[in-house]
Amino acid sequence: MTDSRRVLIVGCGYVGLALARRLLASGHQVFGLRRSTGDLPELAAAGVAPLAGDVTRPETLASLPGPFDWVINAVSSSRGGPAAYASVYRDGMRHLLEWLARTPPAAFAYTSSTSVYGQTTGEWVDETAPAEPSTDTGRVLVEVEQLVRDATLTGLVPGCIVRVAGIYGPGRGHLFQQFLRGEARQQGDGSRWINMIHRDDVAGALHAVLEHGRPGDTYNAVDDQPVRQREFLGWLASELGRPMAPTADPAEAGPRKRGITDKRVSNRKLRATTGWAPHFPTFREGYADAIAAARARGNRSVG
Question: Which of 9, 60, 169, 302 has the highest count of CB atoms within 10 angstroms of its CB?
């Protein structure tokens, strides 16, 4: 049986709470940090020890009940722009690492994003591929990753970086919800590749990296099957008995925080190194419950 660990999840939100439930089921003691005290009852109801704190305000970290064996930084910028990314991700990581320097954990994981891959020709990318994003927000994430690598090289924390693809799951799935609302549009000829992962599989990947990851390494957390945008929308249309999403008018296209990329992201390293395998290997399995719920609601938005 796995030894019980004291685990701190910084940013214990949509993914963090799923990870917390998984860790609790494995016998670990889990502490969840959130910015808003109004969110803490949700953590307590799940069996998580709730903590209030904000990585952008380092003084709020001083009273946390460390030390911790495992720490996960899964904070969110609430979809902000470059300034919010710099404050929450870059400055927040600096504050967190400075605090952890007092009592370093045995394992540290940071949830980055596969948006750091800027490739645009549909090629397969793994962790050795250049991370050269075209957006300001993506470049901030690359800076944060380097902070983790530097902290690992200097012996501050044994850190791992987990680059997460587009997350979907209960109540989430941007393109799926757009389709239900009749707002989804194909971009160009719809051939751009989409990389996705179910929330619960992100939680499983983080757990696997904490247990088996190699300090200093980077891992892609993504399911087994990238899908072209037109194929995903066509599948939704078929499953829900609705018309295919139309092609977007180029004049209506607005700025995109994540940039327009076109690549297929490989999870081979995560599988080989940690033994992780997705419970939902493709979007078909992962969206089964949401499809059933949409049918039951007459295809209305279920988000």
Answer: 9
Please state, for a pLDDT cut of 70, what percent of the chain lies above it. 94
**Predicted confidence (pLDDT) per residue in 102-149, tens digit:** 999 999 999 999 999 999 999 999 999 999 999 999 999 999 999 999
pTM of the model: 0.94
Residue 237: C-alpha distances to residues 166, 184, 212, 233, 258 (Å): 20, 11, 40, 6, 25
**Contact at 8 Å (CB) between 76 and 56?**
no
What does the block give as tokens for 151? Answer: 């902290």
* CA–CA separation, 42 and 33 (whole Å): 12
Contacts of 204 (CB under 8 A, 6+ apart): 22, 276, 278, 279
